[in-house]
Predict the structure.
Amino acid sequence: MVTLACEYQPGLEGIPAAKSSISYVDGKSGILEYRGIKIEELAQKSTFLETAYLLIWGKLPNQEELKEFETEILYHRRIKYRIRDMMKCFPETGHPMDALQTSAAALGLFYSRRDLEDPAYIRKAVVRLIAKIPTMVAAFKLMRKGNDPIQPNDDLDYAANFLYMLTERKPDPLEAKIFEVCLILHAEHTMNASTFSARVTASTLTDPYAVIASAVGTLAGPLHGGANEEVLRVLQEIGTVDRVQAYVEECMARKKRIMGFGHRVYKVKDPRAIILQKLAEQLFEKTGRDEFYDTAQELERVVEENLGHKGIYANVDFYSGLVYRKLGIPTDLFTPIFAIARVAGWLAHWNEQLAVNKIFRPTQVYQGDRNQPYIPMEER
């Protein structure tokens, strides 16, 4: 049987890489669903751990199943002292995403048993990664400044506990709820770059900690997870509302991408951005308006006016940075927080990949020379 090569597509754009039942996106209508449930409904009614359970195991848990899952996560929040000691040796100038990638990979050294056909092993790996990733992110934030990490608080739920580990202050209930919704919104988004990386790594049947480390490394790039950091830099660069028009015109003239706008899938406003904007407004109403919010609103208006006809609208990164900033989270932790949430989606794809595994082995279009002679050193 002769297999015809498909037409080359840069970035594999539009090329299906897997069959999946985890999440669904309709970019023209602005629809995102996890296991068939709309993201708006999950953001309003669910918790992050319930959503993670839904993504990974394919169904909403009943009360007993959710309680058991939450208890397991609670028990495994702490990290081994050897991992903490390792993290203390990281350079204080290192980016938290690099620290997270290294730490996630190191978990594989401590939980080295690999039995991918054992459901108990799969569950323990899921629990450890979801439980420990936030602890490692918070620990590095403190240790890079010479401080000891704050231990998890067993009286707090998943989202509130992470905010507590950053400051040793119990967060306001509204702040904790808003942060939890942010985690739900970022938990999964079909076959993006980091998820593809996770599935490729998983297809080799390596351990799940290497899978997550691979995905974290992919997420670290500014074209994927780092965009929300760049959005705040753009807003700082613009400064005031009256400078927005000139900034957009300059970007258009130079054909420069405006961070926080445009999406490979969505040709309307990202449904997650709509939810995040409402969250930002709730937060600002209670704690005071962010100095960049008026500039952000004007930037969105001008971009939509000038580029909306091209399907360029605000994406999830545009408002998430403003929310995190108001919660007192350092800018370089924005992408690690993205990773904390997306671990749920990556693990769902890892589990799905194992069920129908075939190692990824794409082909290439060769464009180099052929049949060239070897030139001896003295003749070069």
